[in-house]
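User: I'm curious whether this sequence folds into something compact or stays loose and floppy. Could you predict its structure so I can see for myself?
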Amino acid sequence: MVTLKNIAERCNVSLSTVSKALKDSPEIGRETILMVQEMAEEMGYHPNSAARALKTNRTYNIGVIFEDKTGSGLQHQYFATIFDSLKVEAEASGYDITFISNNLGGRDDYFKHTQYRGCDGVVIAVVDFSREDIGKLLASDIPVTTLDYTVPGHSAVLSDNVDGMRQMVEYVVQRGHTRLALIHGEGTKVTENRVASFLETCRKFSLQIPESFLIPARYHLPSLCEDATRELLAAGEPPTCIFYPDDFALLGGLKVIQEKHLKVGEDISIVGYDGILLSSLLHPRLTTYRQDGVSLGKQLAFHLIRKIENPGSYESRIVSVPGEFVPGASVRDLSLE
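Assistant: Here's the prediction. I'll summarize afterward.
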């Protein structure tokens, strides 16, 4: 194993100089810094993580809590994009990522697992925030940053679901639709914001949405959207446009529409959410809202690491990340008729 002493001998400088050069210290000249860093790379030097942890009192490990009730795991493109971006940003700052399970070694407790893993900080992506162990974690001195959920005293990174839904509804209404139905996800803050924005935007256009046109389902679960779509299409006066909780769950609705020999964009209009790759492959092209998973992951890592490394001066904040409305051919333009 290559050590600082080996590098110092090859460069004919002191151990102190090597240490400072590898940290880009302004105490020594730029030429010396470049010489030492090039030699370290040539010799294959890698800092010892255990030694670094002892010196800094950190593990350089960030925990991620992601409670996946649908069983899709990291195959869900939206979350996969977020976590990949989070990993890239964290690794660029010298941190590793560990996913924290609530069922490891018989300890059904996220807080205990975080302590067991020795995490310097935690990103909470998806979880039931009413859990007692999550409450303990949030009340502890472990730095935490949350995704799409705000907690006093902690930074939160939010996808702008309110504006995203507003843009979707406005587009559909401007194309002449007045009978809108919303199949929404489970009871989370994201769902609460989307439903509220949907109803508020409909009120702005003086649209009355029947209670039967608001149907709960679950994110990323096509089977429930299949049942909800069948129910909506069986109504005496069915909706002309159906909003789905996400692009993947929408596949369940698409199955029912095809079974009934209806044509999307002609007999029935539909819109999705998330803007995953799948949406661009559907025919006709799906109208959806693309969430910026790359920016969400980057911001989660950035603010958590700032909190970890500047515990006395960092102030928590709420960061809103806009997405992009993507019009397609899945919404018929009734205003021209």
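Summary: The mean pLDDT is 89. Residues 293-309 form the longest helix (17 residues).
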